[in-house]
């Protein structure tokens, strides 16, 4: 009864929040509901098939892709599609879809152990772990250890985890059931050391292994191979996604593994993944003054590496926009962790509140660039008809507000 009251109060607050233009309503409803019933998340999650998705990069996109794939089952799927990924956002997503038998919930890395306890998920997806903003490797290891302890006790839960990220493997390896996915890892800077013994990890074409202890890459059941997925029966399928880039192909393979567990075959799920063209404004193409602009969000070094992979071929121009507000992290030293030399050979424009920090970094890499006063200035000065924009969180939101919220 209190859960119902809390949910309906929360729903009303969410509607008020949307009507008054104070937000999209995805958090305030949950905040109010949790105040009335602290146990709300557990109550709302009861008797549903819950999937939790976490990791440093790709949470929002993978959540969206799993929802699309589960659509093949013909049943309603609840989700926090706007990326509100702490307990209020999760409660709100479940409260808004009280009859959905499935729920796919993007979950903040720090909240995962508590959310596992509250929701008793059927599946937990672990994508990757790398430095984000000011985070340091030691904090990553602590996060992995908290996951490892929580998953060791999560009965009746399948973990779907990336076998190519050693820290993810360590976090998942005490779980009772794991489906390992060869999802790839381009960013190695946070996984040179064995999470178990601290020795140096060795990498070759077969994967990775510790030089000292027995910690090694586990055998995988799902494999991303170029533009194809090899399913657990060894069958090869062309992915042919609308979303660009290696990172999204990796997210799609994870989504297919989750969907398969719930009974949706690759042939059923894959056409639905191909229909996803943008996720919360990311990868969106918009027209601006007769040019096509494509928006890419990248919040941390590993994310920037994946974004470079998606750029139109050189000499296509690119606008880089960096802020350092609270949601971005106040410290821009992470800019030094990215290798910008891949941008050589294309016009580079630099904007955002911390554009000078980025400018200094580009100087050091000897990448020619020009400063721009925002997206419109960049559009007016760029050659060609297509501009790729890579921006971190609040810079992305500012540009999106200017060029329109078209999906
Ligand atoms: Zn070791």
Mean pLDDT equals 90
Distance between the termini: 38 Å
Helix content: 25-40%
Low-confidence stretches: none
Could you describe the largest sheet, including whether it forms a barrel? 9 strands, mixed
DSSP strand tally: 17
Strands of the largest sheet, in order across it?
2-3-1-4-5-6-9-10-11
Structural class: alpha/beta
In this entry the ligands are:
zinc ion
Can you describe what's shown?
Helix 4 (59-70) packs across helix 9 (246-261), helix 4 packs across helix 10 (266-274) and helix 7 packs parallel to helix 8 (166-172). Helix 12 (355-364) links the parallel strand 15 (348-351) and strand 16. The protein contains 14 helices and 17 strands. The protein has helices at residues 2-19, 28-36, 40-45, 59-70, 87-96, 112-119, 137-152, 166-172, 246-261, 266-274, 301-310, 355-364, 374-381, 393-403; strands spanning 49-54, 77-79, 102-106, 123-126, 158-162, 177-182, 201-204, 207-210, 222-225, 228-230, 236-238, 285-288, 291-297, 318-321, 348-351, 370-371, 386-391. The protein is of the alpha/beta class and 407 residues long. The strands form 3 sheets. It has a 9-stranded mixed beta sheet with strand order 2-3-1-4-5-6-9-10-11, with helices on both faces. The structure holds zinc ion (ZN). Residues 194, 196-197, 199, 210, 212-213, 215 line the site of zinc ion.
